[in-house]
Amino acid sequence: MSFSPSISGLTGPVAALADALGTTREGAFAQLGSVFMTRLPAAPLSAPYVVGFSPDTAALLGFDAALAQDPAFAEFFSGNTTRDWPAESMPYASVYSGHQFGVWAGQLGDGRALGLGEIEHDGTRYELQLKGAGRTPYSRMGDGRAVLRSSIREYLCSEAMHHLGIPTTRALCVIGSDQAVRREEVETAAVVTRVAPSFVRFGHFEHFYSNDRVDALQALADHVIERFYPQCKESDDPYLALLETAVQSTADLLAQWQAVGFCHGVMNTDNMSILGLTIDYGPFGFMDGFDASYICNHSDSQGRYAYRMQPQIAYWNLFCLAQGLLPLLGQQHDENVRGEQAVKDAQRVLEGFKDRFAPALERLMRAKLGLQTERAGDDALVNRLFEVMQANRADFTLTFRHLARVSKHDASGDSSVRDLFLDRAACDAWLNDYRARLSEETLDDAARAVAMNRVNPKYILRNHLAETAIRRAREKDFSEVERLATVLRRPFDEQPDYEAYAALPPDWASSLEVSCSS
Predict the structure, then answer these.
(1) Of 41, 74, 142, 186, which residue is most buried, by most CB within 10 angstroms?
(2) How many C-alpha atoms does 277 have within 13 Å on its Cβ side?
C-alpha cells in the first residue's frame, strides 16, 4: 500500500508514515485472507485532538517527535482518513474465539479494533492497530468505541510495562474527542494506537479449531512460525514446537507479572498473546498493599483472575491453546497412533510450564532481594516475607525498593522498611533472617543496593496516579498524562522532582474501582 497526496490528502510526517504502512507485504497477517478478517473503514470521530503521544514508540517505527506536530496527525490516528483508502488497503478487524472467565464464549473478534497494516523498521515489522475505532462485524451489539479513561490507562500502562522490561504491546498515541459514549455514565470517546509485532491471540487458534477449519488453522500457525519462530521449522513437529515456545514465553511473562505485583484482570484466552506479550489492557492493576488474593477487576466477583491465580490461569489457557493446535500435531507419526501420540506430546509440553515458571520466578525474587547465589532456604525466606507483607498489607513496590537500604552488618538501614509494617516485631524477625542470608553474599551493601534498584522499580502506574491524570484530561488538561508518562519511562531511577509519584497511595485511592468497561 502506498498513499499519494492525491488519494490521501496527506503531506508531511504523517504522509511518510502512511507511505510506510503496508497491508500487502508478503507474509503480513492481512494477507491471510478474508476468512481471518473483515475490511472496513473506521467510524468517523468528530473533532479529534491529541491527548498523549509516545516519542519512544514513534522511534520504534522510524519516526521522531515531529510526527505528533503534523496537523494531520489526529485525523489519521482517529481513523478518519480510512474512508478514502483503496478497498484492498482498508483497515481490518480480525475474527477469533475464546474462553471468557473459564466459559466457552464462541466467536468473538476485534469488536472495536482495526488493523492499519504494518511498518518495517530496522529489520522488524510492527503492526499498528486502532482501538476504539468503531463498530465491526464482531462487536456483539457493542458500540465499538473506547472511552478516554480506558484509553489513557492503556497508553500509560503499555509504555510503563515496556520500561519495566516486561513484554508488552506498545502505544503510540491517544486521540480524544468530545463525542459522547455511554458506559456506566456518559463519557467521551478516544482511540489508542497500539503497536506490536503481532496481535495473534490464543483465541485465533481456538476459533479455527472450533469451526473445523484445519486449513485456516494451519495457515495461521505457519504464519506465526514463519514470521516469529522460524526455528520451529527445524523440529520433527513444528506445531508442537510452536506450542512449546508459547508455553515458555507465557511462563516467563507470568513470572515477570508476579514479580512486580501486576494483575491483568481479564486473562481470557482471547486476551493471551501467542508471542508472550502483555495484551489488552482493561481492568489491570498494580498492587499497593500486598494481598495474594488481590482482585483488580471489579467485574471478577469470583476472583478467577486474582493475583495468586494468574499462573494457574495461564497454565489453563495454554491447555486451550493446545486443544486448538491438536489437529496439526503429530503429523510425523503413523496415522494409527497420531491422535493418541499428539495428545501425549501436548501434555508433556504443557507440563513444561511448571518447570519454566517456578525457576523463572525464583530467579527474579532472588534478584529483588539482592541475592547473587542460590541457597536451599531462599524459597522459605521469600515466602515468609510475603506472609508478613500479607498480614500487614505492606506496600509491594516500596517494600522491595526499600530493602536495598538494609545493611548486612546491622539494623541501621531498617527503618524505611519497618515503617511499612504495623507489626514491627514480625518485620524485625524477618529482617534478621534476611541479614543473616545477606552475610553469605560477597557483594557489599552499596553494590547490592545498586543491583537491587535496577530490578525493583520505584515508580509504577498506581491506580490513583492514572485517575489523577484522567480527571485532569477530562478538563482538557493533558499535561499530567505526559508528566506521568515521563516518570514511568524511568521506573528504576531516582527522580527527585517526582518524589510524590513514588509515595504511598492517598486514602481516597482505596475507593477506586476498575471493571471490564475500563
Answers:
(1) 74
(2) 22
